């Protein structure tokens, strides 16, 4: 599918964005292994989260879809999952394959996980290795580096895992396996990644504590509960950047998740000179939620790296749009993880933004963007990567001609209503 975007001036609007992808996945997985019912509100009906629903159903969990965004999960208890008759297909979802690997490692049955072409290229050794250390019988293609993964459930022992990458998916896989281990399991990460798993496990009654960069979990049953999924800051980011870079723009995004492990994009935009205000902030099950209002300003280039990167790992492509408009140079470093996302996002941004006439270059672990030049519209590719497609669409909003994003159907992975929300903004072309 082609998405055509025309430039817009002075955009205004109060918008709502769909539920958080990470929290939606976790609510279905934890709901499935908890005792009792878990009701989920504001669930993200994107393709990735629907892959998790499909896999959990194949594992014997009954999940009723009351409406597009409301689910009722009948938990089976920690040991209640059953052997799937067929391969578990995770589609494009890295969160599904890595977190469910952790869940399956300690079961009493055999299962196979596979996904699309992108999933079969993404690194799996990062979860296979720590799970094997716990005693898991898990194997993958290419000497245990790639999916498909085959898992024969086994008795697990608690370990202290020091992850070399700050990855919430790796941390979560080990913590979920820790529910099935014979004692305490600990994970220490090199810098803080998103902590939705820890927060949700705690609210479901798990024995879990975090101190600094180390989280410890002991086995035990979970209890189902109501989960209200906050709006996804990674989806809000496209409109926050639009609001920040378009002169005379004013955009309010309602009910956005403001978990501090996810708000790197707000810190960076503010450092670049954006005018951002938070309102109606409240807490639900340990997650902060609030409204974000952004008013257009002149941004300047900055240097971004270190511990900020995991706090905005999915927002780098859209941040590159802000950097392209900002005056001066933006340097993004320590971001080599972007090469192993749904696509090689450093290469994709460098290649596609160059088509608009942006002066940028890919480096070993990031991007250097010389902003402030005028750029025109372009015909761009999505690389079958939802965040690349939406970043290119946003470039189309701020460019000076017509933009076409090819392969834009992948936007359904995380933000099925993206085009509707984009078109709902008022403003002149
Ligand atoms: C996610 C963690 C991040 C992120 C992904 C979702 C999660 O991946 O990029 O979109 O839900 O845990 P990594 O853990 O590999 O950094």
Automatic annotation (TrEMBL):
A GO cellular component annotation in the UniProt record: cytoplasm
Q: In which pathway does it act?
A: Metabolic intermediate biosynthesis; chorismate biosynthesis; chorismate from D-erythrose 4-phosphate and phosphoenolpyruvate: step 6/7
Enzyme Commission code: 2.5.1.19
Q: Which UniProt keywords apply?
A: Amino-acid biosynthesis, Aromatic amino acid biosynthesis, Cytoplasm, Transferase
Reaction it catalyzes:
3-phosphoshikimate + phosphoenolpyruvate = 5-O-(1-carboxyvinyl)-3-phosphoshikimate + phosphate
Sorted alphabetically, the Gene Ontology BP terms of this entry are: amino acid biosynthetic process; aromatic amino acid family biosynthetic process; chorismate biosynthetic process
Return the Pfam families for the record. Answer: EPSP_synthase
The UniProt record lists the Enolpyruvate transferase domain at: 7-422
**What InterPro entries has UniProt attached to this entry?**
Enolpyruvate_Tfrase_dom, Enolpyruvate_Tfrase_sf, EPSP_synthase, EPSP_synthase_CS, RNA3'P_cycl/enolpyr_Trfase_a/b
Which residues does phosphoenolpyruvate bind? Answer: 21, 94, 122, 169, 345, 387
Where is the protein situated, by its record's location annotation?
Answer: Cytoplasm
Instruction: List the coiled-coil residues.
Output: none
Report the CDD domains cross-referenced here: EPSP_synthase
List the catalytic residues.
314
Q: Binding positions for 3-phosphoshikimate? A: 21-22, 26, 167, 169, 314, 341
Q: Which family does it belong to?
A: Belongs to the EPSP synthase family.
The protein depicted here goes by the name 3-phosphoshikimate 1-carboxyvinyltransferase
What are the leading ranks of the lineage?
Bacteria, Bacillati, Bacillota, Clostridia, Eubacteriales
